[in-house]
Amino acid sequence: MNLSSQCQQWQRGDIQQTSCAMHTFLGALTMRKTLIAAAMLATFGVTQAQTTNVDGGTTASSIISVGISNVNAQPFGPHKPGYPGVSPDGSNYIDLDGISTSSRFVDTVAGFNHYYLPGYTHTAPGGGTVTTHINWVRIPSAGEDVYFGLATNPGSSSHNHAAYHVGDRTGYAVPASNTSYSVGGLLATPGTAANDPVILTGTLSYVASYVSVTGTLSGTNTGSSTVHTLGISATDFSSNGPGTFNGTSTYSSSAGASGSGVSSGHFYGNGVGAGNSTIAGIANSTSGDAYVASFGGKN
């Protein structure tokens, strides 16, 4: 029975007629509120309760910045605010979880999923339009995701690369004992194509009581026999705040390239038990042949 026929049956004098009118009005008002709410939901999406304890690092914020995601809209989503995110334009941070889809999956790096987003066209921090290609590797870390990757603004013959890492540091802890990490990495030199970074694997070792983080990663590009090697050595655990490390890096290749530079990173995860401590960081050259690299792994 529809609303109109119900009103006809209830009309029994002035009081009943007034009740019918009010019933009709409230029904229409409820329907209008429902439609407005549905329209707002479709437009703005659902805002969930997320973390604010996101941190990381980048070798060049002019190419890519890291921070808490603040984009919450279609059609590029589903995007969610409050998650580990990246921003090629320095203001709109996209959560990496939302774009880690099967269509962007490339391969695995040290057992972790590697994704690639080509051709993200945007306004550059300094003005003008730039197209950035983004690689990232996802490390599930005790329920708190951590990412490392490369971003590339392509040129005609050489390319501008930046390395980055970002993650949720909720409940993180630096291990209380010596810890070994199986790590992967992405490395690029000026001639490295955005869709073919050097895939690195190796081991990083943490000596407890904030003594050092050291290790070596090595690997090749697809279809190349040239071996690239990245060395990490860090002994500064205070300059960038608690749970961070800073030091040096070295780079060499079997083709004769060599360079040296800096490295930095963070500890993620609660640090308790196997698989619950994650390390991630970046490295870049300051002399010799140019390189940038990102890396990360679990104990």
Any descriptors?
299 residues, mainly beta, six-stranded antiparallel β-sheet, 14% helix, globular, 3 helices, disordered N terminus
Total E-strand runs: 17
Oligomer: single chain
**How many H/I helices?**
3
- Biggest β-sheet: count, sense, barrel? 8 strands, antiparallel, barrel
Main structural class: mainly beta
Low-confidence stretches: 1-49
Percentage of β-strand residues: over 45%
Topology, element by element:
Blueprint: H1 3-10, H2 14-44, E1 54-58, E2 65-68, E3 84-87, E4 94-95, H3 96-99, E5 105-109, E6 112-123, E7 129-139, E8 146-153, E9 160-168, E10 179-188, E11 198-207, E12 212-220, E13 228-236, E14 244-253, E15 258-268, E16 278-288, E17 292-298
Antiparallel strand pairs: 1-9, 2-3, 3-4, 5-6, 6-7, 7-8, 8-9, 10-11, 10-17, 11-12, 12-13, 13-14, 14-15, 15-16, 16-17
